[in-house]
Design goal:
ornithine cyclodeaminase, domain 1, 2 domains, 11 helices, globular, Rossmann fold, alpha/beta, 8-stranded parallel beta sheet
């Protein structure tokens, strides 16, 4: 049985190959039951979340990921996300691999955002604003830079020191990295805005967005969480990773739907429809596009298969 550490998982999932694998998975499809999503009480601090995400391709592979999200870990100097992925044979049920779940999650999440941006961001997008400075931010920056000609990255976080630390760790040839002190100004000049936070209140406002901007919303994976305001979802052409997931769990869409600002029909397409060529993406270079993701087990399965087969070769 193969066991992949965090570093080995990262090495097995280069973004070019991973984005291609996620694209194929959405185009081909797999069996993907609704994931288990449980709140876990943590005395004296914010509640945690337990996620169980199964998926399989009949006769090929079966996978399941167990992930925990503990917001309080930021005060302990620990990652908020921990998890493991179990990949089994789809013919025998034999366990084939245990893969670092947090690294798999971070990279496949970034790959899904980059895949969406490949359909939705303007072709000459060069300026990226990263909102949030956690572990996922570095993956998102690298993934977006792999599919668009990014030359400038600006990072904003509530803690400027943490933003500076993250900026110092990012070294990509041809790309300058800086820290934003004024979020509104940074957002107003960005071609792509990627948000990966645990915010419960809007951080990015629709009035700030310039024509042609692409808004990538990765945080706010609960109905009670939110990274944008109603103005952003009203102005934007809306896309999601999966309708079932985003419309049930993504606060950036759930809340404005509940208040009647938009409806489920406001979602133009999901990643499967984009990958299959059923929808072409943004309507024009002047349109504002919004991609809301909450994660899908199919993305994990695509990454796990890629990592496993890379080590078999």
């Amino acid at each position: 049985m193969l066991v992949l550490t965090e570093a080995e998982t990262r090495a097995a999932l280069p973004f070019a190959a991973l984005i291609a694998a996620v694209r194929r998975m959405f185009a081909e499809g797999c069996e993907m039951p609704v994931r288990h999503h449980h709140g876990v009480r943590v005395p004296g601090e914010a509640s945690a979340t337990l996620l169980l995400m199964p998926a399989w391709q009949p006769g090929a592979y079966i996978g399941v990921k167990m992930v925990s999200v503990f917001p309080g870990n930021s005060t302990r100097g620990l990652p908020a996300i921990h998890g493991s992925y179990l990949l089994s044979c789809g013919q025998t049920g034999q366990l084939l691999a245990i893969i670092d779940g947090a690294e798999l999650t971070a990279r496949r999440t970034a790959a899904a955002s980059a895949l969406a941006a490949d359909y939705l961001a303007v072709k000459d997008a060069s300026r990226l604003l990263m909102v949030g400075a956690g572990r996922l931010s570095q993956n998102l920056i690298e993934a977006h830079a792999s599919i668009r000609p990014i030359t400038e990255v600006v990072i904003w976080a509530r803690d400027p020191h943490k933003a500076a630390q993250t900026a110092a760790q990012i070294v990509i040839p041809g790309i300058t990295v800086a820290v934003a002190t004024d979020l509104e100004t940074a957002a107003g000049s960005a071609d792509i805005i990627s948000c990966a936070t645990l915010s419960t209140e809007p951080l990015i406002f629709g009035d700030w967005l310039k024509p042609g901007c692409h808004l990538d919303l990765v945080g706010a994976f609960k109905p009670s969480m939110r990274e944008t305001d109603d103005g952003a979802v009203v102005r934007a052409e809306i896309f999601v990773d999966t309708r079932d997931g985003a419309l049930a769990e993504g606060g950036d869409l759930v809340q404005p739907i509940e208040s009647g600002v938009i409806t489920p029909l406001s979602v133009r397409a999901d990643l499967a429809e984009l990958a299959k060529g059923l929808y072409r993406g943004r309507s024009s270079d002047q349109a504002i596009t919004l991609f809301k993701s909450v994660g899908a087990a199919s993305e994990d399965l695509a990454g796990a298969i890629l990592a496993y087969e890379a080590h078999r070769r």
